Amino acid sequence: MKVLAAMSGGVDSAVAAARAVDAGHDVVGVHLALSRMPGTLRTGSRGCCTVEDSNDAWRAADQLGIPYYVWDFSERFKEDVVDDFVAEYAAGRTPNPCMRCNERIKFAALLEKALALGFDAVCTGHYAKVIEHDDGSRELHRAADWAKDQSYVLGVLTHEQLKHSYFPLADTPSKAEVRAEAAARGFTVANKPDSHDICFIPDGDTRGWLEERIEMTEGDIVDHEGNDLGKHPGANAFTVGQRRGLKIGKPAADGKPRFVLEIRPKENKVVVGPQDLLEVDRLRGIKISWAGLPLPAAEAGDEFECMVQVRAHADPVPARAFVTEETEDDDAATELVVDLDGPLRGVAPGQTMVLYQGTRVLGQATINSARSRQWDPSAVS
Length: 381
What we know:
The protein is an alpha/beta fold. The chain has helices at residues 11-22, 51-64, 74-90, 97-116, 159-162, 175-185, 206-211, 296-300, and strands at residues 2-6, 26-33, 68-72, 121-123, 128-132, 138-142, 165-166, 219-223, 228-232, 259-264, 269-273, 279-290, 304-309, 317-328, 331-345, 352-357, 360-372. Residues 209-273 form the tRNA-specific 2-thiouridylase MnmA-like central domain.
């Protein structure tokens, strides 16, 4: 099989490429240049796709004796990930840029180019597993190491993309084993720290970064009953569940802290309230995709049981889901409705919910609304 190994410069992708070589595949390494600041250097474990990362990927490819290329995807990354991130915050939602990167860059733009060049599959260092059935259909499943499982951020992959996805780390029992293997192979990245935070905001100051790109206008902070509490410098810099940075001069009657319950960008209003009002029991999602063939019940619009996960490292919770057609202002839209068996706290529009049955990833949707059991947002005018 002709395999294009996406090499980020980290230990996982280096070992994944090595295993692809060991399996006898014809492997070519490629590093995606996503940053528009080519002089940027990695600081500790923040950020990725830097000059240092490119050099680390090259060294690993050289040790493996495979061809290595750097592809400039910076413009596509800016349009599909960075600009989308800004637009979502401007609309009062909290996006997940890693989901967009996997969807639109690594498994859309990269895979599209790989197939055009005659490759059979794209290999990455993600911890997830693709299972192929006798009829040729594919399913996406959690990795053996649940602590490192990355199936959540791959929930955006379609059945066609799964046909060309190759995850050599799927059955690895732990990250420690991957590092040990990298060390045994002599890879310099064996002890390189994992990247975290948003790669295009390497200092971790998301609010400061957004304030340079979104026009912030002072507006009202109100409580869950509609009472005016004070002013904010710009609603777009807040997110549901946030506690710090509200700077409300009037304490709550019970003396307990307040949390952001809702952001209303059209009204430039931030709604706050007690922590227990962050609990929701119904999620409605848009931009639905299925990781493999959809369940017959989902296609028929029938309710089906599942587990739902709303963050990369969150525990999944039991739920029941169904797909429905909703009409608003004469426009029909398909929605995924998920009723939770127990409440989730601090769920924000813009987050991704991924559905599971056992270890199998069913699909995903972008959360459009989250309903509280105890609070009706329409009470705030």
